[in-house]
């Protein structure tokens, strides 16, 4: 995926060339990221100049997305705290032990159980459990996504080369020209219909690389109420987080 630097910020974007377009158009969405449509004969230098001119506007849109939903309170990884999986909340129980060296996380009987070394500071505990939760979501996604993918691949008569979960800061999904689909692991916190919509969205890109009317018509043929899922993700996407903040240190 192409990108450019604006100050210290890297801005990734999807670039589509069009024989019908006379001007460069830029769209910014939480789900789709930055999409640039440019005339097929535009010079690279001219395109980069326009992108840098529009960078402040792009960053302002990103900021607006961060304000769509109330930012979730930083996770403290304490007993009683709730963590989402496929739209349902499950409580965490934390135990400290003197005879272990690493933190362990399991899901057992409707609860997350964390075992943490007693010697860990709060920050060490938070870092360890943040990593453990991410690994847990990745593991669940590796089992769940192929099941859902099989359903929709058959309905759409489309099969990707691969589907993988990964870290993506501002995109929920990516479909490459090679037929590989990458999904943001945080989607495993969302309700299953939202997960399904994301998979259908990316699968549809294997047939329609852009967001044309044909693309959305195809998505609607599989998920008639896709716009509700798209709006849910736009509004609630920022809440799908297990981030925690480091305490301020005064010296």
Automatic annotation (TrEMBL):
Taxonomy, superkingdom: Bacteria
Leader peptide range in chain numbering: none
Residues covered by the YgjP-like metallopeptidase domain: 23-234
One of the Pfam families matching this protein, by short name: YgjP-like
Protein name as it appears in the record: YgjP-like metallopeptidase domain-containing protein
Species assigned in the record: Sinobaca qinghaiensis
